[in-house]
Amino acid sequence: MQPEHRPADEPIGPVDASVVPRFAGIATFARLPRLDEVDHADIAVVGVPFDSGVSYRPGARFGPSHVREASRLLRPFNPAQRISPFAVQQVVDAGDIAVNPFRIEEAVEQIEAGARALAEWADRLVAIGGDHTIALPLLRAVADRHGPVAVLHFDAHLDTWDTYFGAPITHGTPFRRASEEGLIDLEASMHVGTRGPLYGVDDLTDDARLGFAIVTSEDLEEHGVAAAIERIRARIGDAPLYISIDIDVLDPAHAPGTGTPEAGGLTSRELLRIIRALSDRRIVGADVVEVAPAYDHAQLTGVAASHVAYELISAMAPRETKEESDDRS
């Protein structure tokens, strides 16, 4: 419950854990208010419980609820980014975009329509999947507002393949379709954390043609996180930025609860550090996908995903400029 003396223009934050225990009550993300409890939001966290586009292990349709449960332990001040992300912007939980689980094409249309409808109430979305298919309709909605965006894609896989079993829209194809549709900035997009076997060398040739540079998991191991951050920031530049994070970018030791795990991935600490380095970029939207709780252990994957979403929200928070700081001093 929120205090009655809260100023009208002050964001409504999470439920106070010193008043209501974290394990009590309905699990909204980070125990934030619902969208219907505010007039407008700066950021809406929305679940997209869809996994009909998977090619291996299903179960990511249960990801949004799993991540919300794991997010109960998040706290309002982020010391790594030196910001209270829920105090400087209104962040809400917008519930789920419910879609048809039997027809991928219809579901994709419903996700895009849902994202567009939410844009009337919230400036930016952080989506929790669901499988990576959902990135395509979310990018359609974002590009409609901002034009082609830089896509920073964290994943063990490229997700720029053409079809699976003749299906053009699956969790392995969203960024090929997005590139073909002109949704992404071909000079500013990048994969991070890719690794593991491919179908052939043509996968890499196609990927470069579609507009992506790559920082592989091996690059991070050989050159370090600081070098990766430098490459990422140089590639993005000042372009509007959409961040898409498949939780399988993390090593299975850190995120076992996912559909297509690959050995040799990033640590949670490495991923969070990279996200924090993007707080001065113009992030226009994000998603965290492929959390499949049936394969999780002790909420390892859910906790990792909830912290990833928290760092994304923190990176989106407004910062005081040097001029503003000087004016106050």
Which terms would index this structure?
8 strands; 10 helices; disordered N terminus; alpha/beta; 329 residues
Write the layout of secondary structure elements.
Layout lengths: L40 E8 L14 H8 L20 E6 L7 H15 L3 E8 L5 H12 L3 E5 L19 H7 L8 E6 L7 H8 L2 E5 H7 L1 H12 L4 E6 L21 H9 L6 E7 L10 H17 L5 H7 L1
Short précis:
The protein has helices at 63-70, 104-118, 135-146, 174-180, 202-209, 217-223, 225-236, 268-276, 300-316, 322-328; strands spanning 41-48, 91-96, 122-129, 150-154, 189-194, 212-216, 241-246, 283-289.
Mean pLDDT across the residues is 94
- The number of helical runs is 10
Q: Which class do the helix and strand fractions yield?
A: alpha/beta
Radius of gyration: 19 Å
Shape: globular
Structural commentary:
The structure is a single chain. The protein is of the alpha/beta class. Helices cover 31% and strands 16% of the residues. It is built from ten helices and eight strands. The protein has helices spanning 63-70, 104-118, 135-146, 174-180, 202-209, 217-223, 225-236, 268-276, 300-316, 322-328; strands at 41-48, 91-96, 122-129, 150-154, 189-194, 212-216, 241-246, 283-289. Strands 2-1-3-8-7-4-5-6 form an eight-stranded parallel β-sheet, with helices on both faces. Mean pLDDT is 94; it is low at 1-5.
